[in-house]
Structure of Putative imidazoleglycerol phosphate synthase, cyclase subunit:
Amino acid sequence: MLKKRIIAVVIVKDDIVVQSIGFRKYLPIGKPEIALEFLTSWGIDEIVYLDISATNNQKQPNYDLIRKSAKKCYVPLTVGGGIRRMDQVHELMSAGADKVSLNHIAYNEISFVKEVALAYGNQCVVASIDVTKTPSGYQVYDYTKKQVIRMDPADYANRLANNGAGEIFLNSVDRDGTYLGYDLDLIESVTNSVHIPVICCGGAKNASDMVHVFSKTNVSAAAASNFFHFTEHSVNVSKSIVYKNGNIRLETYANYSENTFDSDMRLTKKDDKILEEMLFLRIEKETI
């Protein structure tokens, strides 16, 4: 059985990592290179780097910033935002990207998905779908125009898969930044319609939401952005909790197997006697 993946999403707006809330409100966090170094060092499986201002501002990807950030990243890196031409894909691959995320260009020119897949292989193409729920059901959402596109996300995902996409990155606009958990109905409808891996995103509050989505759907990876930046040891703790309940990789020394967690999935304090004994433990610095 293939192992499930935990993926961190780094949302970049005007060259700064931001916290996204409902695709409308953005709060600054810090530099992309620092975020990627932190996430990598704590054992994240993959990183998705999304420049949300590039397409809106008709700008190219910031290759220098991506190159600088990629030097701090030692896990598979997907880069999206501002991609409209093959020469940009070539430059991103040279800058350190392992995959590219195609969103706006995909529903305007789906043949471009096939073109990238033919050049680099299906495994390098991550087709990104933003979705919102309307009175008539789930619909694809255009984040540049802030409006609905009359396309069923499950049908659209199937078209993308048939045109060369190797993975689907499924993002719930309604759940973005809400901490209400993943939209299981949306995820199930898309995973049941395609033969390729689906990454779900939007709404995760903590690792319990990841455990829940893995147990209730056939999703291949659970992605999150905001809570990874604001919770101490967030990656290790999340992976340790999911590891106890599912089939994922856990390769770091700090696996928290003997720890307990509170209702918000934060580490609880060990007994003072145990902490005293730990003072005499020698732990070699690990390299991930």
Remarks:
- The two ends are 24 Å apart (CA to CA).
- Residues 234-245 form the longest helix (12 residues).
- Residues 5-278 form a domain with the TIM Barrel fold (CATH 3.20.20.70).
